[in-house]
Amino acid sequence: VYIYLGCTLSQSFNPDFHHSPVIKMGWLHKTPPQGTLVFQKRWVMLDAQYLRYFQNEKEVYSKRIIAILSVTKVLNVGGQKFEVVTRNRTFLFRAENNSKLLKETIQQHCNSMEKSLMNSSDTRGQRASRVSLISKQGYLEMSGLRSKLYVVICADSVFLYRNAEEHSQGVGITSIEMNLGTVKGTDKRSFNLTTIYRTFSFVAESEQQREQWVEVLQACVSHSLSSNAVAQKIWSEEANQRCADCGAPHPDWASVNLCVVLCKCCAGVHRGLGQSVSKVRSLKMDENAWTENQLFLLLGNDKVNLFWAANIPPSEMLCPSSDSEERQRFVTAKYCQGKYRCYHALFGQQEALNKALCNTIQTGDVLETLSLVFCGADVNCYTGDPELPSPVSVAQHYGQTLQVEFLTHNHNTGRSNETKAALPISHTGYLFKTASSTRAVTEHFSRRWCSLNQGNFSYYESEKSSSQSGQMKMSDVLCLVVNPQGKHGYGHSFELYHDSGRVYLFGEDSPDTVREWIKVIGKALVPPVAEDLVGWSFERVGRLRYTVGQSFHCPCLGWFSLGGSRLLLLLHGEDQVDNIDLRKLQELSVEQEAGAVVLVDRGRRLRLEGDRRPDYQGWLSGIQQGLGRGDGPLDQQQLTETEVPVIVDRCISYITQHGLKSEGIYRRCGVNSKIAALLLSLRHDARQVRLSEGVCQVDNVANVLKRFLREVGEGVFNGHQASLPWLHTTSDERRERVSQYKALLHSLPPVNRATLGAVINHLYCVQCFADENQMNMHNLAIVFGPTLFQTDGTDNSAGQVVEELIQNYQDIFNVSGSAVSAEELVCEVLRRGNIPPQQGDYWSCFLVNDNQEMERPLHYQERALAIYFSLGKDCHLVVKRNCYMEAMLIYIAAMVDVSRNSMIKFSDEKGQRGKRTFSRRLCVLDGTSLRLYKEVKVTEDGRRMCSTQPERECQVHALKVYYGIKKRLQPPSCWGMTVVCEQAERDKQQWYLCCESKNELIKWLATFMNLQVVSFCVTETYSTFLTAVVKPSKFRHRAFCSCHYGNSGGQ
Ligand SMILES: [Zn+2]
Fold first, then answer.
1. How confident is the model over 382-393, as pLDDT tens digits?
2. What is the DSSP string of 900-915?
């Protein structure tokens, strides 16, 4: 049965009509009773006794009224939804899709409901009395409805239910307050119940029944009027006939400590501030609490407002039709912050205030007491009189009962910790504005006086206009867009995207004017913690919903600002603004269907949701423009983490993997059509291009790199002018020129510098294989000179410069100083291999000899690159799991003495001429040194005697321990280790020590490791075996990264 008691007010809703102050109201979506999942938008209102929902915000009579007492629980069921559960029915609500603060709204609703539920324990008694207050109940026909309604007259309200069951379940249609109603019989069986909003026509079952109903209803009306007695008395003071805050008539609530009489709406806000600020009482319901009405008669709203509302700017005045947000803001400012109060002359002088208070309370001047207390006097201060220590006792002593009442009400109000108001943002001035539209239109600008104040942006015909021609709350503005200069006909313009989907366009020719507006609007738009978002030359700033990771549910609200390639963001719950360089995004995908865009940045997946709103399109195209363009100069390209254009990086990686040994690499010409096509696709979106191995492919890729470098805007050397000093270095001396190159390199923009470094590094690598590829430094320089300098090649100075750059690569680019530690290297390899850390696995970077016979895990702090450059061609670096590590750590954990001595099989290089060169030694390792003792003899009882002088000795710090022994030495077991002793540069020795079991080896290795600092490895780990290999020769880490990249198992 669909029952709709349509009755709307022409003006905005007047909740004056309800009994209790409204705790919360707003739009929510609700499933219809049929249980389909189509949500309907409903205006929902919660007070202490009932949860009601309405067709819309102007409706007077609800569609449904749910007694809080019948609610058993409120469940936050995730996402934007919550359930209100009664014994018989569950109501599912969802916060509005475009609601400003989804989660907060739901949470608040839930909290409010919970609170009401909690309070219902106090109202149980009331319920009992409510039941007894039912003066009549039964079925009645109502005109316009086919089925009868179950009508209950209770106290001074009439409740309508669909049936008697609903009544017992506490879920009804609506309630009609009778205090302003009249009842009249119209026919034999019918009668009208008339309120100021509408007339309800009922038909009783019989004439007799009709008479009973009318009689009871009339009694109900007079009862409701009689409960006005207190109110009437309070209202006898004329100043109390209007709400102290908004001026609404017949205010029937009061704040007993602030001494103001209030309307229901304002009382609701007061209640929200908490008892410590405002103690709210009903004039009608809390009859017993009204002994203090004398105080209200003495003071009255007008006199009290002389204090509280001494300085209200007209723009901030509240009126009866103000909405709840304005009310909230005003009431908070007025009472919490004391923003409009009349400051007492003694303000700020605590001692003097307290003293004045103690004097004033002896008199009848409650108003002065109020002024003192709310300007900082301490109600609980010590009076100096041990007989009458507190102000209350003084007032009692002097018989000032009203003073006592006032002091008592403010006994525990927290005046001392007043909240400091944030510096209010306000700005005014003329701007040209178009009519708002769903898109920004360019014509019909008109000049308007604009004002930003207290989070409200309003505009007027002129400075002198008193009534605004339009207004928007900053909290409803989704996005501020700064237009490029000259767009829309004005020198400078900006757009505001409103929650309603409308766009407002403002313009001015003066850049300063617009800049100032953008600054203040930006600040007013974002939360204070997000101020960094607007402290730069952004192009747009605003809020968007987003999810992080794979979760599609529960989007949060984040703040973003975008300009060029920079996206700043403040995610929900964070207190620091984060920064994304869009050029370095790992991935960007647009979900056209869903209206969302997914960004992957440094491994983090961020999905921005657009809701198909106009502002989203702007975000999307702004982000896409910031990604980097293949046809732009270097610094507008897609970039790697190291600021090298992705195109360059892709090509170099490919050649490193497949082309280093290719004869004539970079000199052969490749297939022109393929080169052009490949370059085109790389320029379109380099990140999406995967270069696959194929015939001639290396030459095509090599030519793509050359062509890109030759054609890229401004070139690697940042334009013709900037490239000249490179070509005309003045010195003949190599050293001089190298330092000049260094200085020039330093003056390049970061992306150019990184690109040049990557290219020269690559050429350095290529020439390392000159034996195979026939491309030595000189040959490469002939090719790359004109390419990098973008010259025609007639002048060979370009080639000379490039040759010198390659020649002095390590010097100029400071490669030897590169401080990549073994740990950083391992982490980087694991990151690139996308290997998540796992418990119980240990990764190390190993220095491995060519036959993989011996390997040494680098200490985590060792400089991997320095070692790498020092390697001979028969060694390489490998990042892999350290299979001994776990056992070693277990041994170390149980170790008592950090030393070891036992017999061990020993050999050294000198012994390799003959076979079976391993012989027994006593091996002693402690904190100082490793010592080997020759066996002298075996005693009769089997004890082995050793010489007292060590045969060999090496300081612990000079030892490097490798796992394994060269096979050609024919070690007696496979549990060997090679100890390299570097005590003196000229005295580098290798000792070969061989254990009898794995366990024995682990004990030795663990002891070595423990003595040489425990952390050898990265403790983050992995279960499957994966190795990244650094190839031999002398080029930079780029080489092994690319070896590894996309090729996670191999060499
Ligand atoms: Zn009010």
1. 888 878 888 888
2. EEEEEEEEEGGGGGSS
